[in-house]
Amino acid sequence: MRSPWPYFAAALTLSLMAVHGAHAAEPGVTGRAAKACKADIDSFCAGVKPGEGRIVACLKENRDKLSEDCKTAAKAALAERKNAKQAR
User: What pLDDT shows up at residue 18?
Assistant: First the structure.
């Protein structure tokens, strides 16, 4: 069975871009994931420069410490991405 982390990373990257101002947050699951993970990013990745997957890498390194809200929202974002991919 494949690890869901690459998909989680992709969904979370889009969400984190919204949190860090790369573009306006879109409503829906990815926006909720961005909001839910903001405190975790602030706590565990405060010194990490956004971009090129660095924030996602930081979150992966700290995945055991992530809040339940962040984990739940990220899983929902992952499921949304998977459903969108299957619909194509």
Answer: 47
